[in-house]
Design brief:
335 residues, mainly alpha, 18 helices
Length: 335
């Protein structure tokens, strides 16, 4: 995730060049993406396929961005399709990947051609998605009928707007418990306000084609992550209750993957713009503010959350109770 994101964000998306601060812009954006609180939450929860698909998202965006800006279909089209196929390890990312490509397509010189390319990428990846599509269209709807969506349940799978803006993510709150003691919720909120303020101020001078895709990711990610806790709650609740297949994305907090990507790109662009405007103090302030978020991962405090039992015998007893159900199915426990 770290290596791939850094290469894609720097070379394909930001195109930053020049002095040390210009190179740092891409590196900071990458660290923000690779070590975000969203990653902490998914890692501790054991959502490993989610992290695999998450790490591929910048690759897909970078490859599709190159595909949309050139007349050459090879190697970009098959490479994008291959990336989408790998992302099917977490079925929700089939939808997130398509959304990401649509956002990029909307801000290209020939959006209709780019839209057709996005559809072509999804179609070309179909052979690798047979199992995922079977679960999406057959197994999933049948299972969701047994566990119908309710507004109360959807609330638990949603993130409040303020929590989403601070990239709090997963309801279990693993990331919130992982910050160093000095970084209280109040400090993190104040830092987030500085972060967003510096980004907004810097991006006023960024060309349209550069600034709008990151804000597209941010906007769609925020609307998705807040689930039924925003003004669109009635529409989302209706869809969840009446469109069974739509329940594949009812873990609304996973939309934060798009938010993190958009915010990471915006941070990189903003740092680079403050550099070009000869405002290094503002650039470094933005860098420091953006590095507060990854401390939830880099501090290592989350490691304690992976071991919830002080006695091995307690863990074995708990694991044994889940190891085999009456119908012969098994439950695998992951930290």
């Amino acid at each position: 995730c770290l290596v791939g994101s850094e290469m894609c964000i720097r070379d394909r998306l930001l195109h930053v060049t020049g002095d040390l601060l210009g190179s740092v812009a891409a590196l900071v954006a990458t660290i923000f993406y690779a070590y975000s609180p969203f990653v902490v939450n998914e890692f501790v929860a054991g959502h490993l396929p989610n992290l695999l698909a998450y790490s591929l998202l910048p690759w897909l965006v970078a490859v599709f961005w190159a595909l949309a800006r050139t007349k050459k279909l090879i190697p970009y089209l098959p490479l994008a399709a291959f990336t989408v196929g790998l992302s099917a390890a977490q079925i929700q990312y089939l939808i997130f990947d398509f959304i990401a490509m649509l956002i990029c397509a909307a801000y290209t010189a020939r959006p209709w051609r780019s839209l057709a390319l996005a559809v072509a990428v999804m179609a070309l990846s179909l052979p690798s998605q047979v199992l995922a599509l079977y679960h999406l269209l057959v197994v999933g709807p049948a299972a969701y009928k047994l566990v119908p969506a309710t507004f109360e349940w959807l609330q638990d799978l949603s993130v409040t707007p303020t929590h989403a803006i601070a990239l709090g993510g997963y309801i279990a709150g693993y990331a919130s418990q992982s910050y160093p003691p000095a970084l209280s919720e109040t400090v993190r909120l104040f830092t987030a306000l500085i972060l967003y303020g510096l980004i907004m101020a810097a991006l006023l001078v960024v060309p349209r084609t550069e600034v709008l895709p990151p804000f597209g990711f941010l906007t769609v990610g925020l609307i998705g992550a807040t689930g039924v806790l925003d003004p669109f709650r009635w529409l989302k609740t209706y869809i969840a209750e009446h469109v069974t297949a739509a329940n594949v994305v009812r873990e609304y907090y996973n939309f934060e993957s798009l938010m993190v990507l958009g915010l990471g790109l915006a941070i990189g662009l903003a740092v680079d713009r403050w550099r070009l405007a000869s405002r290094p103090l503002l650039a470094y302030t933005l860098i420091i503010a953006s590095l507060v978020s990854p401390t939830a991962f880099l501090s290592g405090r989350f490691v304690g959350l992976l071991n919830q039992w002080s006695e091995p015998s307690d863990y074995r007893q708990f694991a044994a109770s889940l190891a085999r159900a009456a119908d012969g199915s098994r439950v695998a426990l992951f930290p």
